[in-house]
Automatic annotation (TrEMBL), chain A:
Domain of life of the source: Bacteria
SUPFAM superfamilies from the UniProt entry: Sigma2 domain of RNA polymerase sigma factors, Sigma3 and sigma4 domains of RNA polymerase sigma factors
InterPro entries, per the entry: RNA_pol_sigma-70-like, RNA_pol_sigma-70_dom, RNA_pol_sigma70_r2, RNA_pol_sigma70_r4_t2, RNA_pol_sigma_r2, RNA_pol_sigma_r3/r4-like, WH-like_DNA-bd_sf
Residues covered by the RNA polymerase sigma factor 70 region 4 type domain: 138-180
MF (Gene Ontology): DNA binding; sigma factor activity
Taxonomic lineage from the root: Bacteria, Pseudomonadati, Planctomycetota, Planctomycetia, Pirellulales
Name of the protein in question: RNA polymerase sigma factor
GO biological process, one term: DNA-templated transcription initiation
From TrEMBL, chain B:
Organism: Botrimarina colliarenosi
Protein name, entry field: Zinc-finger domain-containing protein
Source species, domain of life: Bacteria
Length: 200, 82
């Protein structure tokens, strides 16, 4: 019979051994399914992640609000732990300075394909405005964080190298995106223009 | 060094989906289990969870984690126990 959320909480709060074993098995099954097909996610890696995840779940027990099944909530945490470790292992030797030089180009991005002249001109204008805004409106930290994300560096790694939390990093890049968007809108570009340009 | 075409396209798509108020990754993690279960059950997404969709549109890491969670839940529903 499946445990209720209340039962999980009660037993895990008391560090009941059967509940710990049951949760550990559930997390390992969840990770096997969720990360299936990933080359570096072998059984040894998954077992290590399960152990780390179990500790993380126990640490966060007080945050579970019962709006989902407990095991689903715990599995979401385990997946974050495991994918975070996989991402970090790929990027551990890359520095922000390597990834994001101090300057990015000032316009001059080549146009892809051969769109109609009016589309090409609008795209050029938008890219010029975007590059200018990246250079002039963003702080060095915002520019570095945003470009590092675009280049695929994991948020945890960017946050570590910038000496801030992941939440602080999110605020940094969110504020950067808002600034860029506001600048483009003030220059007369609409959301549709952004989409049209992004696929042009 | 320049932004590549792919990076420009990605950035413009991000800006298109940027909202003044967004969940951060920690807030997303707190709600994503309920969001995934609602999706799996074919329920309409409650108003309080719609911000999750927006966050997943601008956060590639949370989207990757959500897709892995869906894979796990789909497996559970299909009875394909490991």
């Amino acid at each position: 019979m499946e445990r209720t959320n209340d039962s999980w909480l009660k037993d895990l709060t008391q560090r009941s051994e059967p509940a710990l074993v049951e949760l550990r098995e559930a997390l390992l099954r969840g990770l096997r399914r969720g990360l299936s097909g990933r080359p570096r996610a072998d059984e040894s890696f998954l077992e290590d992640c399960t152990q780390d995840s179990l500790l993380r779940v126990l640490d966060k027990l007080g945050q579970f609000d019962g709006r989902s099944r407990f095991v689903t909530w715990a599995t979401a945490i385990a997946i974050r732990v495991a994918l975070g470790q996989l991402r970090r292992s790929q990027w551990k030797d890359v520095t922000l300075a390597d990834l994001v030089p101090a300057t990015v180009n000032q316009g001059g991005n080549q146009l892809a394909g051969a769109p109609a002249p009016d589309v090409r001109m609008q795209r050029r204008d938008l890219l010029v405005a975007l590059n200018a805004s990246i250079q002039n409106d963003l702080s060095d930290r915002q520019r570095t964080a945003l470009l590092a994300e675009l280049r695929g560096m994991p948020q945890d790694e960017i946050a570590r190298q910038l000496s801030c939390s992941r939440n602080a990093l999110y605020k940094l890049t969110h504020d950067a995106r808002k600034k860029l968007k506001a600048r483009l809108e003030a220059a007369g570009f609409t959301g549709d223009d952004l989409i049209a340009t992004s696929v042009a | 060094m320049s932004l590549s075409e792919t990076e420009i396209a990605q950035l413009l798509k991000l800006l298109r989906r940027t909202e003044d108020r967004e969940l951060n990754c920690e807030q997303c993690l707190a709600l994503v289990a309920e969001f995934a279960e609602s999706h799996l059950a074919g329920k309409s997404i409650p108003a309080g969870l719609q911000a999750i969709e927006q966050h997943l549109a601008v956060c590639g890491e949370c989207l990757e984690e959500y897709e892995a969670l869906r894979l796990t839940l789909d497996g559970l529903r299909g009875g394909r126990d490991a």
